Structure formats: structure tokens, C-alpha cells
Amino acid sequence: MSKDSLETFIEKVRLTWGPLSSELVESCRRYSEELLTAPSIEEWLAALIRDVPANQELYRDPSHGFVLLAHAEYAGLYRPPHDHGRGRVIYAVQQGEIEMATYVRIQDPDGNVRLVKRDATLVRAGQVKVFLPGDIHDTRCVSGPARLFRFTERDLKKEDKEDGKVTRYVEQDGIWTDKAVA
Predict the structure, then answer these.
(1) How far apart are CA 93 and CA 148, in angstroms?
(2) What is the model's pTM?
(3) How many domains does the chain have?
(4) 36: DSSP letter
């Protein structure tokens, strides 16, 4: 029996998994791009298209801990600046368009934190965007409904809930700042 695109993605990631390196990032980015070309008749993808879940776990690796999620987002959905703590994440857009902006965290001599927007990229269907540990970004669905896959090296939601490793920022008087300082 032949493997579907999701099973192939999992197998390839498992075979190349290891510590963070340029080679691993490139391999996972490439595998994510390949996953975007999955035929819509594959059962797992047909279910996503039919049910349009806001958030669905597609796979959690029992040995390595990486997680693949599917998200459906409506046009206008905005997720404010945040990082993923010590984790890395790959967003792969299958349908729609998501704008992803990156920021740098600046702390002035008084200890006040503010974010400076570095750039914004429109990630279209068939494209992938990689964020490494500590990278600060936001996302905005500009053309929806969008379907995207989010591949993380670990369960970031659990890690954030237990250890508070993810930093989220809030806007005050037009300036993005550290929530703890706000």
C-alpha cells in the first residue's frame, strides 16, 4: 500500500530529525512545501477541506515530540506579536494568504521594552515561512478562508501553559511592548 502525503511527510521528518541546524531547517521547510501539494482526495486533507477546523492536530511524534497542526483562518484574523520561546515553527500556507511580520525587541536604558517592525511578508498558497527560537512575529489572514499547517519541534501550547515560555506583546499608545511591563 502506498503512503499518502501526510505519512510521507512524517516519515521524512523522522528520518532527518535531530538538533537544530541549517540542514534540518531546510529539510523540514522542503518537506512542508511538499505537503502543500497533497492531492485533495487524500482522506486526511479531504476531511480538513470538508470540516474546516479552526485548529486540528494532524500528528504528534511519540519519540521526537514534534507536532503538526492544521489551522483554518478567516480573513482579518490577527494574531499579535509573539515568539515561540525556545521552539521553532514552520508555517505552510495551502490556501489563502497570510501576512507575517517580524519584529526586533528593543529595551531602553530605563528597562522599557518596545518592538520595532523589521518587515512583512505575504505568504501565499504554496509558500512556507520559518521562525527560529526567539523570532518575534505576528500573523494576519488577508485572504481567507486560509488553510495552513504549523509544524513545531514540540508542543508549544503545553510548554507555554506549564512554563510560560512564549512571550506575547500588547499595544500601548501605538507601541508594541512586553506584556509583563504593560
Answers:
(1) 4
(2) 0.89
(3) 1
(4) T
Classify each residue of 109-134 as buried b or exposed e, where b means 16 or more C-beta atoms within 10 Å of its C-beta.
Answer: eeeebbbeeeeeeebebebbbbbeee
Q: pLDDT by residue (tens digit) across 108-132?
A: 998 889 999 999 999 999 999 999 9
Domain containing 113 — which CATH number? 2.60.120.10
Nearest to 72, CA basis, from 93, 89, 90, 100: 93
| Full residue range of the structural domain in which residue 128 is found | 53-178
**Residue 27 included in any domain:** no
Position 180 scores a pLDDT of 58
Looking at the DSSP bridge assignments, the partners of residue 119 are 102
Among 140, 31, 161, 139, residue whose Cα is nearest residue 85: 161
The answer to whether the beta carbons of residues 135 and 54 sit under 8 Å apart is no
